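As a warm-up, study this chain.
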Amino acid sequence: MTDETALLVADVFEAAGALRRIGERTADAEGLTQARWQVLSVASEDPLTVPKAARRLGVSRQNVQRVANDLVELELAAFVPNPDHRSSPLLTLTSRGRESLARVTARAAALHATLFADISDEEIRTTRASLRRLLAELDRHEDTAGQR
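Now compare it with the structure written out below.
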């Protein structure tokens, strides 16, 4: 690993931590936790099972189950029957959950516009492309490591 690579890894971790802290404050301003925001977001397109949500978020099924149960208790989400798997219901957003997600997403968009105001769209696209390549390599590495 070159010194630049080590510095890049450190920078990515630092940026992730800072974005998590900002995300937690953003979610809190709308009465959510970041975990609840993430689960609402991942379930917003189509209803999905807790295990599928956990895979998409890269966290444990148990963690997502706890958050999903909280969202259901808060009437932000509901479990509906899964025609493909009786014992694994689908998590879906309620209208109240969709409204809550829309508010926190709008708040985040306004914050992002401020945070990234001095960074050109081209720089953002280039950085994203590099990160997507890195993520693809990481996925490939995890896949081959799991086969050993």
